[in-house]
Amino acid sequence: MNRLFGSSGPKPPKATLNSAIANIDTRVSSIDVKLAAINAELTGYQTKLAKMRDGPGKTALKQKALKVLQRRKQYEAQRDQLQSQVWNMEQAQTMQDNLKNTMVTIDALKSTNKALRKEYGKVDIDKIERLQDEMADLLDVGNEIQESLARSYDIPEDVDEAELDAELEALGQEVELEREFGAAEGAIPSFMQDEVPEFIDEAPTAAGKVKEAAG
């Protein structure tokens, strides 16, 4: 059926810059081979012409050499054109590669930007600020607690040690006097006697006080 209706087969793939550059490089190499052969031929003609005398033979040989030289110039011109085409396509290839790299970079930036927007959208700045304020308040409370616990209870600086020594000595003398002149045996020194509260009818006995002191 394809043959009857003249339908063509699958289309060949489109040429790329790389394939076109490779094709032209092959043609340039072919021209270089031809130029090498022409140069060898011209060298032979020059050698022969240098040995020949002027005359019809030398003139004919010279005409052949001129034709070969003209053909060489044509090949050189073709090679220059092909090399210029290769240069232009290489520049285009470089621009295409740079563009691809730029597009990859742009796509990566877009993806990153989208991800950052999604993540930052979950962050509530007001909550963070309130949390920071609460943390600052808690730190202040903690500092106040530490300062309160670290408060010292020193003896007032206006206490005179000489007065304390005099008072202690006076208490000692009182004890000695009461031992010598006590009215009852086993009496307790006055500084060890407790005052009787108003709600108690009778004062405790001296023996009871001694027992309590001993106990």
From TrEMBL:
<comment type="similarity">
    <text>Belongs to the SNF7 family.</text>
</comment>
<keyword id="KW-0175">Coiled coil</keyword>
<protein>
    <submittedName>
        <fullName>Charged multivesicular body protein 5</fullName>
    </submittedName>
</protein>
<dbReference type="GO" id="GO:0006900">
    <property type="term" value="P:vesicle budding from membrane"/>
</dbReference>
<dbReference type="GO" id="GO:0032511">
    <property type="term" value="P:late endosome to vacuole transport via multivesicular body sorting pathway"/>
</dbReference>
<dbReference type="GO" id="GO:0005771">
    <property type="term" value="C:multivesicular body"/>
</dbReference>
<dbReference type="Pfam" id="PF03357">
    <property type="entry name" value="Snf7"/>
</dbReference>
<dbReference type="InterPro" id="IPR005024">
    <property type="entry name" value="Snf7_fam"/>
</dbReference>
<feature type="coiled-coil region">
    <location>
        <begin position="58"/>
        <end position="148"/>
    </location>
</feature>
